[in-house]
Amino acid sequence: MTRKKITPHQDRLIALLEITRQLTAETELDKLLGLIVSRTTQLLDADRTTLYLLDQEAGELRSKIAEGSMTIRLPVGQGLAGYVAQTGQTINISDVQHDPRHASYFEQLTGYLVTTMLTTPMRDRAGNIIGVIQVLNKRVGAFTAEDEELLTALASSAAIALENARLHTQVQRMLDSLIATLAVMIDARDKEMAGHSQRLTDYAVAIARRLGLSPDRIELIRVAGLLHDVGKIGVPEAILTKTSELAPEEKLVIRDHARLTREILSKVHFSDNLREVPNVAAHHHERLDGSGYPDGLRGEEIPLESRILAVVDVFDALTSHRYYREPVSDQEALAELERDAGVLFDGEVIRVLKELIAEGEIQHD
Amino acid sequence: MTRKKITPHQDRLIALLEITRQLTAETELDKLLGLIVSRTTQLLDADRTTLYLLDQEAGELRSKIAEGSMTIRLPVGQGLAGYVAQTGQTINISDVQHDPRHASYFEQLTGYLVTTMLTTPMRDRAGNIIGVIQVLNKRVGAFTAEDEELLTALASSAAIALENARLHTQVQRMLDSLIATLAVMIDARDKEMAGHSQRLTDYAVAIARRLGLSPDRIELIRVAGLLHDVGKIGVPEAILTKTSELAPEEKLVIRDHARLTREILSKVHFSDNLREVPNVAAHHHERLDGSGYPDGLRGEEIPLESRILAVVDVFDALTSHRYYREPVSDQEALAELERDAGVLFDGEVIRVLKELIAEGEIQHD
């Protein structure tokens, strides 16, 4: 970092600092695990690293990433990693083959011979052991005291990064499952609509992918698709499930669900990439010629995301059973949409839908 | 870190590493901002640090934490911090008073005189400038080239920590608002129930706090309270809003909502601290003597969280308007609950409710 008097130790500290930054920048759990392993091997100038995570309930270590090896399960207390998980000590062994705590079982299976080994625990903020990092076979000589200190520091940074990534993953999963559950709840009010929001979303995402939209826009379509009908909560069941022809005022109440979708969703603090969800969801009943609702938008005034939802919403409606008619086949539904291509519906979206149906990628069952 | 040959520079690198770890361990935005400022001042041996965050849309820097100072707003391009935000350069000035880019305006306001100043941009993962760190008045002499390098490295770690904390805050806000919106949607099906879930939750959280429950348990009660009636989605509106006496089979359908709440919520992947939400929410109609539903639990078999929800659910029902009767006063509702204390409802919870009503902390309006 300074230009003068750079010692090898300083070099390694700077490398450790850079690694720490890389680890904390990675919020995806799987990638993070891989990064911890590869950077440890590199910093310690070793041949391999195995990362074990502790399964508290099972009292077991599981190797999440073992370079060049299978998954290892190790009860706490067994083997060198198990010993470290139990005692919380860092151990540095220069002659593994003669250490009584060594579990040679895996070597016999893999044929990979370990001579030197440095093993240290990872602890969370509260000080609990959450895993073990095990570095194998220093390239030259044995692991030094400096190696021990560097690995301890690295394990500490890795543990924080792991906790952050886990927290992030948990909250994200909670959010995703809550949205999916909400979609199921909305459809559940009307048995004819069961599964509608999820199917519409699957179709829409397939089309968005084929159109080459960015991951952020695909995610926007996914969330807007799942939530496009939340406004139906404001439509009385008596109207929602009516089997005879609807009166004009009842039709107005039904139409109002799109506006209500926007009103309800605008109360959710969507993250930046999802900021347009209320808007995209609200416009799933707009039509190119301006005959749709709630805003009577025309052509490209309608977001592409909403134009996709409009097509798949009708496709799913036609191919599903409804109170007033039997479902039609995918081909018949497509033909019906094609008659209105460019007038009511986006022609390009319909073309891609046709492609995906022909390939069997989209199929109503 | 090593025991031999520790140079002052190594000491500072080790300090920087420790600071980096502290920053990445802090996921709360406000605390993180404070931590960045205090640790920067310390590492750079300076008198003060100001942290500016860039408001992209306004084209403006805003001092989030300026030790010993008011909030400063600075258009990008103006002043030294504005210059750094515009150019992305780190600048190190040993004679601030004679630098033409310096905005002396603030000094005149605050009376704090700056002589030496080191200013560096913070960049996100994508390389965009998200803010500026400005360190003021090195305690001895001017800021060195080593100081510049340390601050650059610190700013880089700080930026990652900031991005992580923001991401976490955003997702958490989205989750919270989605849960609150869901609660409003559930109550909206029956106009007599408007606001019920939110009121019940407010009362329950107040009682939980007074009982001294841990933050995790209070959060569990909060989320379970907001979602306790999701199962009502399965009760037809015709039954939900019926003004005349319910038939026995209609009563069974209504009772089923508690079981349905559990069924629906068990599909949500709650994070570890909220794992009991489906259970706690489902048991809000259990009674101490086993006469409740869905499981007919008795006494302490009913989680304390659910016993709290049971009391405030009835309290809110009694003090709100219902189709079949007028609301009663808080005191009347309390008296009614007290008659069943220890038989149907938790006596301690009712005692705390009484206390909070007496203090005006809980009040139905």
Explained architecture:
Chain A is an alpha+beta fold. The first copy, chain A, folds into 2 domains: 8-167, Beta-Lactamase (2-Layer Sandwich); 189-358, Hypothetical protein af1432, CATH 1.10.3210. Chain A has helices spanning 8-25, 29-43, 79-87, 105-110, 145-188, 196-210, 215-227, 237-240, 248-265, 277-282, 304-319, 330-339, 347-358, and strands at residues 46-55, 60-66, 73-75, 91-93, 117-123, 129-138. In chain A, strands 3-2-1-6-5-4 form a 6-stranded antiparallel beta sheet, with helices on both faces. In chain A, helix 1 runs antiparallel to helix 2 (29-43). The first copy, chain A, is elongated. The N and C termini of chain A lie far apart (63 Å).
Write the layout of secondary structure elements.
Two copies of one chain form a homodimer.
Chain A: H1 8-25, H2 29-43, E1 46-55, E2 60-66, E3 73-75, H3 79-87, E4 91-93, H4 105-110, E5 117-123, E6 129-138, H5 145-188, H6 196-210, H7 215-227, H8 237-240, H9 248-265, H10 277-282, H11 304-319, H12 330-339, H13 347-358
Antiparallel strand pairs in A: 1-2, 1-6, 2-3, 4-5, 5-6
Helix pairs in contact in A: 1-2, 1-5, 2-5, 6-7, 6-11, 6-13, 11-12, 12-13
